[in-house]
Every structure is written in C-alpha cells, then in structure tokens.
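User: Before I run my own analysis I want an independent prediction to cross-check against. Here's the chain; please return only the structure tokens and, at the end, one sentence I can use as a sanity check.
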Amino acid sequence: MLWRIDPAGDEPLYAQLAAQAHIAAARNELRPGDRLPAARELADSLDLNVHTVLKAYQQLRDEGLIELRRGRGAVVTARAATDMSPVQKALVALVDAARSANISTETLTVLLKEAMSR
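Assistant: Structure tokens:
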C-alpha cells in the first residue's frame, strides 16, 4: 500500500492516514491479518512526527479496523473485511444513479461532501 498525505490539505494528517487505510480495506488492498508499517517507519517515509502516525493508528483501532499488538504492531482485523460492504453497495448504487442522471464526477463529489458535513 502506498501512503500519501497532503500537508496543505484541510484534513488533519492523522485523519488522512486513517482514511487511506479505510479506503485500502474497502478496495481489499488490506486484508485481515495484514500488518501496517511500524509507526516510526511510516512517519520517517512521510516525513511526519511519529505521534501523528500513532494517532491515526489509535483512531483505526478505536474504529475496529486494526488491532495494536505489542511486538506485532498494527494488524488488520477480520471485521475490516466486512465493515465496508454495505457502503460499497451504496456507492455503486449512487454512482449508477448519478450516471443515469448525467451528474458529473465533480458535482457528485461536492454533493457527497455536503452530505457528509451534515
């Protein structure tokens, strides 16, 4: 998995990392039992403070996507494989509806962001 952050973005850096892990799990790029990089390793590769990565990992743990195990690091849980399937189905339906209504990707993105901010 390739981790990317946008230091100039509005979203906090730890939240960007957590969101990428959720997206990777939804795309089945992260599977149960997979290990995420060590916090120091990921922080060094992205030129971040290690506490930023640890905060992202703690959020992912609190959301049930990963378990933090002493000596093994961050491990993707079995729950991660099932949590996103209803969302994926809803997204497919949303995209299909948007296409049939000739709504552009940009417009759909704005609509989705507005809906998420409510």
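Sanity check: The mean pLDDT is 90.
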